[in-house]
From TrEMBL:
Mo-bis(molybdopterin guanine dinucleotide) binds at residues 253-258. It comes from Candidatus Aeolococcus gillhamiae. Required for formate dehydrogenase (FDH) activity. Acts as a sulfur carrier protein that transfers sulfur from IscS to the molybdenum cofactor prior to its insertion into FDH. The lineage of its organism: Bacteria, Bacillati, Candidatus Dormiibacterota, Candidatus Dormibacteria, Candidatus Aeolococcales. Keywords: Cytoplasm, Molybdenum cofactor biosynthesis. This is Sulfur carrier protein FdhD.
Length: 281
């Protein structure tokens, strides 16, 4: 269930009040177990949980793709001890890579990197080098992507409470959209979908974030071999640094016909280049 209904009292300045039904984005814990061992707990919006687990394992560097997964299943008796707690068991084909970093076993839907012992632990080198990716797109193509994402955000349209990630091919065709209360979960769900479809690495693809571009989202895109990360809002300084060091194109403030290209400018073809101003969203 991705949304829940609740009666709320709506107030207006001036004294007007009324009761109405509001829709809330669902948020529940999901524990991911790897070969019987608890790996992490994340607060997520239920749905596409297998994609979430596969994407998490890929972006943490634990597996390279779907061929490393022997089986995935929801544990049927995991909720007996109480409530809606969900447990997803992943069995690997063979021994996986050592778990990257010292991640706490509980993450809120917004914490992301803060679950690491140190930021150095998440400087994982991707199995895929995007420096030589030949992708080149036009500003006009990039400008169409946010509208395509918004049109596909069905739960956000009802609740206003979810982040989203969208995967596009080089021609701007929308391949996959996932929504979640956590932006990093949305990315993991998209990348996990690509992994289960055996599409990794995602050369000459674009991933779009509905909000800001953080260090962690940049890392996740790199782990999937995506050469271009675009975001509707601002990137962080560390996201820009990581993208620059890795040869990724990072685009921020992608709104209307304007955008800021922070790194990898060679992948965004434009006939006229001007400079000297101060970038602003």
């Amino acid at each position: 269930m991705t949304a829940l209904r609740r009666r709320v009292r709506q107030l207006r300045v001036g004294g007007d009040a009324r009761w109405l039904t509001d829709e809330l984005s669902a948020e529940e814990p999901l524990e991911i177990r790897l070969d019987g061992v608890p790996l992490t707990v994340t607060m997520r919006t239920p749905g596409a949980d297998f994609d979430l687990a596969a994407g998490f394992l890929v972006t943490e560097g634990i597996i390279g793709g779907a061929d490393d997964i022997g089986a995935m299943r929801m544990c049927p008796h995991a909720a007996d001890a109480g409530g809606d707690f969900n447990v997803l068991e992943v069995r690997l084909v063979g021994p996986g890579s050592p778990v990257v970093g010292q991640r706490n076993f509980f993450m809120t839907s917004s914490c992301g990197v803060c679950g690491k012992a140190s930021i150095d632990a998440v400087r994982t080198r991707s199995r895929h080098d995007v420096r030589d990716d030949p992708l080149v797109v036009s500003p006009a193509l990039l400008a169409t992507l946010p509208d395509a994402l918004r049109e596909a955000q069905q739960v956000f349209a009802r609740t206003g409470g979810l982040h989203a990630a969208a995967l596009f091919d080089a021609g701007g065709t929308l391949l996959c959209v996932r929504e979640d209360v956590g932006r990093h979960n949305a990315f993991d769900k998209v990348i996990g979908w690509a992994a289960t479809q055996r599409r990794l690495p995602l050369r000459s693809h674009i991933i779009l974030a509905s909000g800001r571009a953080s260090f962690e989202l940049t890392q996740k895109a790199l782990m999937a071999g995506i050469p271009l990360l675009a975001a509707v809002s601002a990137p962080s300084s560390l996201a820009v640094q990581l993208a620059e060091e890795s040869g990724m194109t990072l685009v921020g403030f992608l709104r209307g016909e304007r955008m800021n290209v922070y790194t990898g400018q060679q992948r965004v073809a434009t006939a006229v280049a001007t400079g000297g101003g101060t970038a602003a969203g």
